[in-house]
Amino acid sequence: MNFTPFPELVSNRLFLRNIFPSDHAELLYLRSDKTLNKYIERPEHRQTKTTADAIKFIKELNENIQNNTSIAWGITLKNKPQIIGTICLWNFSKNKAFAEVGFDLHSEFQGKGIMTEALKLILDFGFNTLKLHKIEAFTHRENKSSKKLLLKNGFDLITDRKDMDNVCNVIFEIKNLV
């Protein structure tokens, strides 16, 4: 698995690109807004509360890309370079057969099919480029929007597994059928 050069992904409306330190204001908002993070529980050392925290987080994302341990994309509209959300593949299994997807989206852009479009790009990349066997998603059991998105895109709820790090989460997965 090699994320260099960075794989930019394009759909009808979206451009998924690398996240740069200049995106710190958008990342700070996405990771600190109370409404957007209603269902996310981060330990204190993983919280993003300041510009410095956001820049540090972006550096970590890019180090993970360089080390090929995870990859995160900034979601932008094709005609606007400003990040409106993020989506990532991370938490890869040791044999690189499985990964977890994570995502967030500015509230102004929710309910418009943007995350469905971004998720389809990531599933295609994960299954067809990385040759993953399975992609998982962990979401809060009360996060109706996230659960609806996952089900709409072919994920199945896994009822016999529990998130040992967060009892409020439920686990979804989608398998590569090829």
Describe the structure in brief.
With 178 residues, the chain is an alpha+beta fold.
What do you see in this structure?
This protein is α+β, with helices and mostly antiparallel strands and 178 residues long. Helices cover 28% and strands 25% of the residues. The protein has an 8-stranded mixed β-sheet, with helices on both faces. The chain is globular, with a radius of gyration of 15 Å.
Number of helices: 4
Supply Rg: 15 Å
SS content category:
alpha+beta
Average pLDDT works out at 94
Largest sheet: 8 strands, mixed
Unreliable parts: none
Give the arrangement of secondary structure elements.
Blueprint: E1 9-10, E2 14-17, H1 24-32, H2 51-66, E3 71-77, E4 85-90, E5 98-105, H3 114-129, E6 134-140, H4 144-152, E7 156-158, E8 169-175
Parallel strand pairs: 5-6
Antiparallel strand pairs: 1-2, 2-3, 3-4, 4-5, 6-8, 7-8
